[in-house]
Amino acid sequence: MGVELALHGYICMSIDYRLWNTGVKSPTWPQSLFDAKTAVRWLRTEAVRLQVDPERIGVFGNSAGGNLAAMLAVTTPDDGLEPAAPLPGVSTRVKCAIDFYGALDLPNYHDMKMFLQTRAENPAIYRKASPVTYVKSGAAPMLLIHG
Fold first, then answer.
1. With left for phi above 0 and alpha for psi between -120 and 50, is residue 45 left, alpha or beta?
2. Which class is 2-145 in CATH?
3. Which end of the chain is more exposed for a tag (fewer CB within 10 A), N or C?
4. pLDDT tens, 104-132?
């Protein structure tokens, strides 16, 4: 998809973010969200060099990446989900997001290993990782693709 978008004038980048690793017994959330937010910060700081308009950053992802794209679209610094470093003070806001079948309402989904706890054991963490928790006026527009 990145090549197709590039052919139409878009600048695309792909990031690595932390996912559940069966060999590591530590939670990967919110670190995965921090990885995505740090990538947005980095892109903003490198915008001139990369010839990117920092006010027109959009994100898309599928599955776990779709969840992260949605979280980038709906969270603000007031939600307490900004990474402390690197690049503190650089905005993580995006202009728009596309979520390809990413989970939006985790308490109604299924238990996930990345939390190291079930929904019954810690429903609050499932709510905290759910984009629907943060939807409010002013959120970036989002296209949801499921099915």
1. alpha
2. alpha beta
3. C
4. 999 988 888 778 888 999 999 999 999 99
